[in-house]
Structure formats: C-alpha cells, structure tokens
Amino acid sequence: MKSYCSKKGDVKKVWMLIDAKGQVLGRVATKAASILRGKTKPTFTPHVDTGDNLIIINAGGIKLTGKKWEDKQYYRHSGYPGGIKSLTARQLLERKPTELLKKAILGMLPKNRLGRSLRTNLRIYETDNHPHVGQSPKTVTV
Hints:
Blueprint: E1 15-19, H1 25-37, E2 53-57, H2 68-71, E3 73-77, E4 84-88, H3 89-95, H4 97-106, H5 113-118, E5 122-124, E6 138-140
Parallel strand pairs: 1-2, 1-6, 2-5
Antiparallel strand pairs: 3-4
Helix pairs in contact: 1-4, 3-4
C-alpha cells in the first residue's frame, strides 16, 4: 500500500464559520487551528496547506475560565532597553477584541513559511457581521 501525499493543486478549500460567543478561548483556538492546518481532513499532509478558510464571529464575546482575565499577561517589546510593555487579557480584549483570539490561534500554527501562509486563511470579526456571506460558509460547533 502506498501513502497518499496531497499536492497544492489537489486541495479543495471550503469556508467554515465558528461563532465564538460564550465559548472558552482555548477550545475555540484549538478547533480553529486544526481546521486551518487541515487536520480534520483525511487527506492531511504536514508540509502542504490542506486546511480550509475560516471565519470567526463574535470574538468580543469570548470567555476565559478562572482568574485569567486579570492574571494572564500579554507582553510586547519595543526593542529598546526597558521597552517591555504588558497588558492583561481584559485590557487586550477592550482595546482589540479580535487580537486575543488571533494570538491564541496563531501560536498553535507552525512557525515557518507554511504557518505564514495559513494565517491568510483566517478572518476574525468582533461582531456577527462579516462580508463573506457569498461564500456560504458551513457552521462548525465547538
């Protein structure tokens, strides 16, 4: 028996939709990362983009369990000495509601050329309005 290896031209991408309202951040992020990577398909190949296009709506209504709203820190650095800045999860959600979910999902993707190309298949929206109605996305439950 021979192993099947997908090629870039053989992949058929479909549009998926996840509603994140009231869902836990990690659960949504793991489901989204596996859809983007293509691990939900039987034709998964590690070095080929076999994933689907993904739309996530209601990112502002995401939940965190425990005391993570105050305890979880997100850091960034300007590159200058003493230039480290931090935000709590609640502050990040208030400033950029989509960024909390985006950081969680992109952290689960590979850190190489394939991971950078998989990022283009992800679209996150703060509310339930999105411009991709014409693609007729299939709804995914988390």
